[in-house]
Amino acid sequence: MGFLKACLDFLSHAAFTSFSPFDALFSPQQPLFVPTPPATYSAADFAGAYSPRIDPVRDCVYPALRYNGYKPCNNVSRTCWQRRVKFKDYDINDDYEVTTPFGITREYWLTVDQADLRPDGQPKINGVALNGTYPGPIIEACWGDKIVVHVRNKYRDNGTTIHWHGLRQLYSNDMDGVNGVTQCPIAYGEEYTYEFRARQYGHTWYHSHYSLQYPDGVAGPLIIHGPTSAEWDIDNGPIMVADWLYNTSFAAFNCEAYDCGNETPPKADNIVVNGIGAFKQSNGKWTNNYFKTMFKPGKKHLLRLINGSAASSFVFSIDNHTMTVIASDLVAIKPYTTTSLLLGIGQRYTVVVEANQEPSLYWMRTTPAAGCSAFRKNQKGEFTQVKETTSFIAYEDAPKLPYPDSTSVKHKGVNDTCIDESHISQDRLVPIVPWEVSAKPTNDVSRGSFTAGYEKNANPDLYPQLPFKHWLLANSPTSQPLWVNFSMPTILDPFTNPPFSSITRFEQSYGFVYLIVDGSFLFNPDPNFTAIPTGHPIHLHGSDFVILNQDWKPYDPVNSPRDFKFNNPARRDTALLPSGGYLALAFKPDNPGAWLMHCHIAWHASSGLALQLVVRPREIPGYNGDLLPVQLGCESWRRWDNRDPIVQTDSGI
């Protein structure tokens, strides 16, 4: 009955309904619902990323070693570099100050000129750049290569030089790139060629050492490929972090030299990572302008961290990820894990991060370190123009969102304290190639002890038009701030002491020279100077140094040496002088030359907080070879300076 009734109902309905076989052709059809797959990140999204171009196995070439049967082995183990069966490998255990393979020549061309720089979309006043970009191009080489860089100055307002931060420049003091110390500035329209051998390996940065030029944009990363102390799969390249000022640094320096109220010391406007930064708009929202780098699930990624700031240190971390630290500055170390690192000005760390989290987006955080950063704050102590989430990692195939929604996982012991890794524990930075330091220095430690001081009265002798109080490294009542003579670099006359040259000489050719840098005047009180408790990142040219100790307490010449570490202490080229405390260093006097030691806060270095260490001056001419390029460069500088005199308003470095 049910079937018969259904047929009758159909016929009844059809009898009263118009029907055409074409109705189905023209009646609208409802589409089937097919969900659109979400866009995801892929390698194509990172095609222009700031990444290395040299493959260590394919592109690192050693003709002499290849002729003798050596082959690359970095693809077998990252600790190995070149191998020949039944012969000694070139590897992570080699003392690179003694053993270095001979590679090939890598040649680069850089031009310094004014540029329209807008890392976060906001214009910078009088930006200066290398080849028109900030940061400048990545300079790459392999361990043992000869690096040749031609630098042309097309910037009318200043001279320029390029310093290769952390490279010890053995036999090439004249290539260190410090005007007034190892060369004259490169005059407008002139070119200077730097040639040196990459005896170390790892990564670092290069920057102008002409006055305050590097915070205005004259800086870039430098990678020297070599063995590492841990395995990794993908080299993500440099992560160069910097504070950023919209004003020219030369104008901002006025707020270091003279009282500008809340703007003293100078305050940075933003934080940029690899030349990219988000900007806080007037409505309180941030632009979606972040540096990003890709992680592949299950792979180990190599990150090369650099702090290229003028005045700010940062605590670096990655949400939900742990880092394995394998190098500090250009020194390979025994791997250890951490969730955060203090990245002081001028310091570098090489870290390996395993992509072992849920495929997504995760913030890389650059938290301004408490007490050693310079950004504007409100009355609550909160940053008003910067934030710590400045860049991010995106897993391959993760949803293509503009930025992460990850939150920081606060691990026990992680905070924003301004303290070096070696200060937390000497066991954190253990070099692979050990140094055993003699407990008996070869120098008179009292002559090698300096206080980071500040003048009580404006100094009328350096910039008489507008005198100001200077920072300096003092070890006597007659100490003066460093103020170089652009036209007469020390390397051409290492035996005299011009006014304000701040030279200390070391004739020793063996053992270790001790240097004590103190942050208070309890050890060395002086009526002309005062101590302002501040963390100073101290950088030494020409040599790595060991860190005998770092302490918050002032140096005591009787009791402090009892805390020194002599058995393979931490070793690097830039370390933090703790605020109000001391930093005890030791270096080998095995590299004759005129070398700078200075605070890497740009304002302090420009004020004069620096000195020259002239090591074995009698050997400088013969040790460094022909200094004719330096002499010719100085002749060019003097001619240009005579036509259009430069008014020196800071230390020059």
TrEMBL record:
Residues 112-227, 237-386, 535-618 form the Plastocyanin-like domain. Pfam families: Cu-oxidase (PF00394), Cu-oxidase_2 (PF07731), Cu-oxidase_3 (PF07732). Coiled coil: none annotated. CDD domains: CuRO_1_MaLCC_like (cd13854), CuRO_2_MaLCC_like (cd13880), CuRO_3_MaLCC_like (cd13901). Keywords: Copper, Metal-binding, Oxidoreductase. Gene3D superfamilies: Cupredoxins - blue copper proteins. InterPro entries: Cu-oxidase-like_N, Cu-oxidase_2nd, Cu-oxidase_C, Cu-oxidase_fam, Cu_oxidase_CS, Cu_oxidase_Cu_BS, Cupredoxin. Belongs to the multicopper oxidase family. This is Laccase. It comes from Podospora pseudocomata.
